[in-house]
């Protein structure tokens, strides 16, 4: 009984995906695109809180069961993956903090937002690609959107102040209004809009707290406000809206009897270390002094059962993280719930991210609605590297080289033409789809699709 089901979904996925490179069906002028990120929105945050507006968006559009972020599950690296389609080792924004192992400079998240050479490291994000192809773009607080790439700035860019209050709902609405004006008065084609919640609240109070649940309701009200403003601006039929995030959140095991504390490891001494980046959740990087790599590695590799220390070249390839010149000779991560303490314990968050992207608590959301998206479709999980190709298709622009697959998210799209395949081309998209639609109505369509497919083949 497994075979027919698989055939069905494969047939459906193929039918919904037009041939690679074929333009997305669009009527009249080009559709606009708004990418919204609510930082640290774990995939299941809508399951213990009433979220009427997110629910309505799912009914009207597409919802992924969850999305798998890139590793390392940190804000700037994951946001840059969304706008480049590259794994983190391939775009080079490997940390929230700018650092240099030679000058020993380390800058916090906000300061790093303004360090052009940290971001402009050989990859061209979607704003710049779209502008080179004649489009106008904007970035509102989106990480990486306030520097120049190969000398080019985003058409309209806003950066938050250093002491920004990330949870002011009044300001959120004003920001939504500004973005709507960018679309209607300045005719921008693509805008990325960032909110720093529910990440901040998740860090401070923990992901299972009442405060986090209240913040998710604030996010939900904002999604409602956003869609209302889209309708009010007469953009419902001409703007595609994606609501997503960078990573999830998990509870920090603060009172565990087995905390990961470097200052308690026997045979390890900071005197062997030239440069360190520790005390940043579950992630750490070390550059040992000349000739001391083996000594440090041997002292650390079995130092703690929750700590996984690797030489750069031995870091698991599946993470697509360590193969970048910015990565130090030793790097590490700890198990879910454990953070890495360095010289002294200075981490007091109740919630944290940065963990293995296979941990369910690190998974995040993906929702989309608009003229190009199917209605009421729930799709199976996919990796965040694919969102970039989807956005390029929605905007009708030629993408840069990237790690995503052009066909992966096509089944999300309303492709009237694909349901009536012209000859064989639409039946065999190169590489197929990463998605297996999972909703009941789609199963019905799948049956229909299979019949069409069978009659085509016959
Ligand atoms: C990327 O950054 C590294 C330093 O972090 C630098 O050595 C390298 O030249 C940069 N590459 C590009 C293409 O900007
Ligand atoms: C950064 O944002 C500010 C507004 O917040 C804007 O004036 C400036 O032009 C932006 N810079 C770049 C390079 O985008
Ligand atoms: C929230 O934002 C509004 C609009 O920017 C501002 O007038 C108000 O003072 C802010 N409130 C707080 C508590 O920061
Ligand atoms: C520390 O080093 C000594 C001497 O090499 C060794 O006997 C001991 O097992 C090491 N301890 C740990 C915890 O690795
Ligand atoms: Zn984040």
From TrEMBL:
GO terms for cellular component: Golgi apparatus; microvillus; plasma membrane. This is Ectonucleotide pyrophosphatase/phosphodiesterase family member 7. PANTHER family: ECTONUCLEOTIDE PYROPHOSPHATASE/PHOSPHODIESTERASE, ECTONUCLEOTIDE PYROPHOSPHATASE_PHOSPHODIESTERASE FAMILY MEMBER 7. Its EC number is 3.1.4.12. It comes from Callithrix jacchus (White-tufted-ear marmoset). InterPro entries: Alkaline_phosphatase_core_sf, Phosphodiest/P_Trfase. It is an enzyme of class 3 (hydrolase). GO terms for biological process: negative regulation of cell population proliferation; negative regulation of DNA replication; sphingomyelin metabolic process. Residues 1-21 form the signal peptide. Its cofactor is Zn(2+). It is a single-pass type I membrane protein. It is found in: Cell membrane. The gene is ENPP7. The lineage of its organism: Eukaryota, Metazoa, Chordata, Craniata, Vertebrata. One of its GO terms (molecular function) is zinc ion binding. It comes from the Eukaryota. It catalyses: a 1-O-alkyl-2-acetyl-sn-glycero-3-phosphocholine + H2O = a 1-O-alkyl-2-acetyl-sn-glycerol + phosphocholine + H(+); 1-O-octadecyl-2-acetyl-sn-glycero-3-phosphocholine + H2O = 1-O-octadecyl-2-acetyl-sn-glycerol + phosphocholine + H(+); 1-hexadecanoyl-sn-glycero-3-phosphocholine + H2O = 1-hexadecanoyl-sn-glycerol + phosphocholine + H(+); a sphingomyelin + H2O = phosphocholine + an N-acylsphing-4-enine + H(+). Keywords: Cell membrane, Glycoprotein, Hydrolase, Lipid metabolism, Membrane, Metal-binding, Signal, Transmembrane, Transmembrane helix, Zinc. Gene3D superfamilies: 3.30.1360.180, Alkaline Phosphatase, subunit A.
């Amino acid at each position: 009984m497994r075979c027919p089901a698989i055939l069905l979904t494969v047939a459906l996925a193929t039918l919904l995906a037009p041939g690679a490179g074929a333009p997305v069906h669009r009527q009249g002028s080009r559709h606009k695109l708004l990418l919204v990120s609510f930082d640290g929105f774990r995939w299941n945050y809508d399951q213990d809180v009433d979220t009427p507006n997110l629910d309505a968006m799912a009914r009207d559009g597409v919802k992924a069961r969850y999305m798998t972020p890139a590793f390392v599950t940190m804000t700037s690296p994951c946001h840059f993956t969304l706008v480049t389609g590259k794994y983190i080792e391939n775009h080079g924004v490997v940390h929230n903090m700018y650092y240099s192992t030679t000058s020993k400079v380390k800058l916090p998240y906000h300061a790093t937002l303004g360090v052009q050479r940290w971001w402009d490291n050989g990859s061209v994000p979607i704003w710049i690609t779209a502008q080179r192809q004649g489009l106008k773009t904007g970035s509102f607080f989106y990480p990486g959107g306030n520097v120049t790439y190969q000398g080019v700035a985003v058409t309209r860019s806003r950066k938050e102040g250093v002491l920004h209050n990330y949870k002011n709902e009044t300001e959120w609405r004003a920001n939504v209004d500004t973005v709507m004006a960018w679309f209607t008065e300045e005719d921008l084609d693509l805008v990325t809009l960032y909110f720093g919640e529910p990440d901040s609240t998740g860090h401070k109070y923990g992901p299972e707290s009442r405060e986090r649940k209240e913040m998710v309701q604030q996010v939900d009200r904002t999604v409602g406000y956003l869609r209302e403003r889209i309708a009010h601006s007469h953009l419902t039929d001409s703007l595609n809206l994606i609501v997503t995030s960078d990573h999830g959140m998990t509870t920090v095991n603060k009172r565990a009897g087995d905390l990961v504390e470097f200052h308690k490891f026997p045979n390890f001494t900071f005197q062997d270390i030239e440069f360190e980046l520790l005390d940043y959740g579950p992630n750490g990087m070390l550059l040992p002094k000349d000739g001391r790599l083996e000594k440090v590695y041997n002292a650390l590799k079995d130092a703690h059962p929750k700590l996984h220390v690797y030489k750069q070249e031995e870091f698991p390839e599946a993470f697509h993280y360590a193969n970048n010149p910015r990565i130090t000779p030793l790097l590490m991560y700890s198990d879910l719930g454990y953070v890495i303490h360095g010289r002294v314990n200075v981490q007091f968050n109740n919630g944290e991210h940065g963990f293995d992207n296979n941990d369910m608590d690190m998974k995040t959301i993906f929702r989309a609605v608009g003229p190009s998206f199917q209605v009421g479709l729930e799709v199976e999980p996919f990796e965040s590297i694919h969102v970039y190709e989807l956005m390029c298709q929605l905007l009708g622009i030629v993408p840069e080289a990237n790690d995503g697959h052009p066909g992966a998210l096509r089944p999300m799209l309303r492709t009237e033409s694909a349901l009536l395949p012209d000859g064989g081309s639409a039946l065999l998209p190169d590489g197929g789809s990463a998605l297996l639609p999972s909703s009941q109505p789609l199963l019905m369509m799948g049956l229909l699709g299979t019949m069409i497919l069978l009659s085509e083949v016959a």
